Amino acid sequence: MKRLLALFPSVRAADRRLLREGRLSGPMPWVLAIMLFLTTLAAAGGLALSQAAREIGGDLANRATVQIVQADAAARERQAAATLEVLRRDPAVTSADRVGAAEMATLLEPWLGAQGTDDLPLPVLIDVGLARADAVPALAAGLRTVAPDAGIDDHRAALAPVSRLIGTLRWLALAIVLLMVGATGFVVVLAAASALDTHRGTIDVLHLLGATDIQVARLFQRRIALDALFAGLIGLGAGVAVLALLGRQLAGLGSELVGSVSLPFWSGGVLVALPLATTLLAAATARWTVVRALGRLL
Amino acid sequence: MGSIVRFENVGLRYGSDGGSDGETLSDLNFALAPGAFYFLTGASGAGKTSLLRLLYLAQRPTRGVIQLFDEDVVTVPRERLPGFRRRIGVVFQDFRLIPYLSVYDNVALPLRVAGVEERDLDAPVREMLAWVGLASRSDALPATLSGGEQQRVAIARAVIGRPEILVADEPTGNVDPEMAGRLLHLFDALNRLGTTIVVATHDIHLLSRVSNAQTLRLEAGRLSDPTGALRYPPRTGA
């Protein structure tokens, strides 16, 4: 903690005047603000995709649908009853509920219209909740004897390509965040080198008056850390505004799959930590850059 | 009495520049006594500024030994150099005042570098400004001062930390004869308080204006000894 605090040194007011220029002056803070904005979006994207992956992996993957396709209504009902009995006895099944006629009509309405489906030989659908995602093959084998026309759809298998895509996007978001961290470091190195160059005359005088490298580095470190903090807050604010807008638009889509893309409650803490982490990174990088540059002087 | 500065076989070479032997300064052997007053003379390009840069630790020699305060500063670890620099006051030829700081802040700088608390800083800065006759200009920026006033600010900044050695590079080069006399009077007064003074100048008329001053003369990077300061144990100031 002591080392962490040392990255953000207190410098007395008189010494602050040694580096002229106000807050957010020069291009560096604005470049950092843009980078923080993009980092916020990438981090939020990664967090939302992680949340979506969890929901798909948890809620949807532990579900299956049994479908009995038989034109003869009596045979269909017989197999449905037998299937429900087998499923409800199986310890791997947590729930087995037949999709009702009204719900079926609602599901089919976009294709068949609202005239009713009473005369159609619709398949029986049974929504199955599973205790274990890998129970599907055993269930299918058990149903084959009592309901030869039953087929079972494993949601996990159906959603596997989506899961893979989400996983890839999640890694991509992490890679973008890490690249942004690296780029932030480079920007700070360039800014510190440029500031050193700008204030070369002052530094030479301080040096010859007996200032230590750390004394000089503190001035730059504090200045760059404060610039990074202001820039980070601007970037975060802009990022959060865009996320709020996107959230409203996503909610308006009404899609169950897209609706699973949401930020977990703790993500706010992660996003707020971004400008703070950037500030610490900037302070540490500035200190390292300045001390290294001064080390080349006598 | 021992020496406060001792150069032994010191040579300095800048890249491929230098005199006939390739060195800007060659075979410097001398000692300065604590509390003495020295003029360092020589024509332009003789190496006066280079010698002063070695003295105030802006430069390491290419060869030889430099002892300051009885320590070899050529081999001393770099981290210890700030401690030596705080014991040396420097008046640069071009003043090197920080243009956006007030006269007060420029003069206070060495004390702030040394970590003196703000509450302990005001009195010595005011006293120093009064000593150089600039008490009424404490809030002025250097650009609004005359050359002589800037020079006095530079002197105040150099001496406020009560250095053991004061090094001044052509301090009278940019001022009229009357102001030159006043500046030398300031140096002489400081010398009487015990500070060793080294003033580089190419103005031979200055040499007779400080009693007890000794002269080191540089010619093409080599030191001659017109007052015998190098051959005999150095004399202390009054």
Automatic annotation (TrEMBL), chain A:
One of its GO terms (cellular component) is plasma membrane. The keyword Chloroplast does not apply. One of its GO terms (biological process) is cell division. It is a multi-pass membrane protein. Keywords: Cell cycle, Cell division, Cell membrane, Membrane, Transmembrane, Transmembrane helix. Pfam families: FtsX (PF02687). The chain crosses the membrane at residues 171-193, 228-246, 266-290. It is found in: Cell membrane. Residues 175-291 form the ABC3 transporter permease C-terminal domain. Coiled coil: none annotated. InterPro entries: ABC3_permease_C, FtsX. The keyword Transmembrane applies. This is Cell division transport system permease protein. It comes from Sphingomonas prati.
From TrEMBL, chain B:
Pfam families: ABC_tran. GO terms for cellular component: plasma membrane. Keywords: ATP-binding, Cell cycle, Cell division, Cell membrane, Membrane, Nucleotide-binding, Transport. The keyword 4Fe-4S does not apply. GO terms for biological process: cell division. Residues 5-238 form the ABC transporter domain. GO terms for molecular function: ATP binding; ATP hydrolysis activity; transmembrane transporter activity. Belongs to the ABC transporter superfamily. Homodimer. Forms a membrane-associated complex with FtsX. Part of the ABC transporter FtsEX involved in cellular division. Important for assembly or stability of the septal ring. This is Cell division ATP-binding protein FtsE. It comes from Sphingomonas prati.
